[in-house]
Specification:
It is a single chain. By secondary structure, the chain is mainly alpha-helical. It has a single domain, classed as Orthogonal Bundle (434 Repressor (Amino-terminal Domain)), CATH 1.10.260. The chain is 47% helix and 7% strand. It has a two-stranded antiparallel ribbon with strand order 1-2. It is globular, with a radius of gyration of 13 Å. The termini are far apart.
């Protein structure tokens, strides 16, 4: 029972990496983390610190809000989609 609680934060890291022909290992090396950390972030199983989120955006050369998006709770409706 249990496991990590799904996050409401989604990201476009995989898509942005592919556009720049960067591997998970490339990004991990630049940030000083493991490839497994990048995998977990891409899959939404791990939310990076605010500092790491900014570092990811910097490495991908886009603003933070083009990398990460926050989905409001279901109670507020799906009009934002």
């Amino acid at each position: 029972m249990g496991g990590p609680k799904p996050t409401r934060v989604s990201n476009r890291i995989r898509e942005l990496r592919a556009e720049r022909e960067l591997t998970q290992a490339d990004i991990a090396s630049r940030l000083g983390v493991t490839r497994q950390t990048i995998i977990a972030i891409e899959q939404g199983r791990y939310s990076p610190s605010l500092e790491m989120a900014f570092q990811l955006a910097h490495e991908l050369k886009v603003p933070l809000d083009q990398v990460f998006q926050y989905r409001a709770s279901q109670d507020q409706g799906d009009d934002a989609n």
